[in-house]
Amino acid sequence: MKSAHLCVLLSVLSSASLPVHSFEPFTTTLVLGVGAALGRTIYNYLHESCDPKWIALNATGLEVDLERKLFGQHTASRIILKAVNGFMTNDNPRKPLVLSLHGWTGTGKNFVSQIIADNIYKEGMNSSFVHIFTSELHFPHASQFDTYKSQLQQWIKGNVTNCAHSMFIFDEMDKMHPGLIEGIKPYLDYYDKLDGVSYRKAIFIFLSNAGGESITQKALDFWKAGRDREEIQLEDLETLISRSVFNNKKSGLWHSSVIDKNLVDFFVPFLPLEYKHVVQCAMAEMKARGFRPDENVADLVARDAVYFPKSERVFSVKGCKTIASKVHYYR
């Protein structure tokens, strides 16, 4: 389809390239202008650019993906859907969207980041406007903290200058040097512009295991009380998470004014996954690989997972983290 459209554009451009000597100066300028415009159209058709053709929220797609692909996270799904919808449909947001995702490994934090990117950027996570930072890869040495801080500030400023609708994902926040995120605090605040650059249309997503224990304990308390996990609401967890992260010296947001000044729009809890959710993950993995979903295989994968508390085996220790390799093993 793309090549067919390109042929049409090239044909039109070719027909516009008539001999220059047959035109008066004004006409020549007009034709060359048309040719240049068509050339830009072709370039923008083939190369990602910061415009609505490449960056636009697919609200229906986001809702469907959260409903069909993210398992056991009713609270997170609801928050993400409302937060992203509200932000992307606001032509003049007062500040960037800042989401802080918390929970144990394998509960879906990275996956949600991908879902958000896939439904905003045509190129998804491969978009040149989506930027991922991992603490151990990009900021490995505490002794170089000042250098990292300066580089991070320049990187964000340069990319937002290039495209206002840039997305920045910070993974492993619980392993990040406390204070590094403090360096970008002004970019998250309520400023129209900083040094001539507006950051209000950017999206910042923090991923962290910090707060996971508080979330898990709350889920366990609900289970012991015989209450359905679907009853757990944001208000049951948000304060617990923010306090846990703010007071945790291993958190990248330890004693951070980003929290103190209420610049995080939502602390999003990811609950520990149960056996039924691991089964759903296994079924989804088989479907994603082009296999016919097999409930027997999914059951074997789920049974092989490690659960806690040990006697009751309620929650999966690794969530759906190792499901892909387990599905391959049992098929």
Which structural class do you get from the secondary structure elements?
A: alpha/beta
- The ordered string of helix (H) and strand (E) elements is HHHHEHEHHEHEHHHEHHEEH
Number of helices: 14
Share of helical residues: 40-55%
Strand content: 5-15%
Number of beta strands: 7
Integer-rounded radius of gyration: 24 Å
Distance between the termini: 36 Å
Describe the structure.
The protein is an alpha/beta fold and 331 residues long. 49% of the residues lie in helices and 9% in strands. It has 14 helices and seven strands. It has helices at residues 2-16, 25-46, 59-69, 74-88, 109-118, 135-138, 145-162, 185-188, 212-224, 234-246, 257-260, 275-288, 295-304, 323-330, and strands at residues 97-102, 130-134, 167-171, 203-208, 266-269, 307-308, 315-316. The strands form two sheets. Strands 2-3-4-1-5 form a five-stranded parallel sheet. Strands 6-7 form a two-stranded antiparallel sheet. A hairpin with a 6-residue loop joins strand 6 (307-308) and strand 7. The two termini are 36 Å apart. Mean pLDDT is 88; it is low at 1-23.
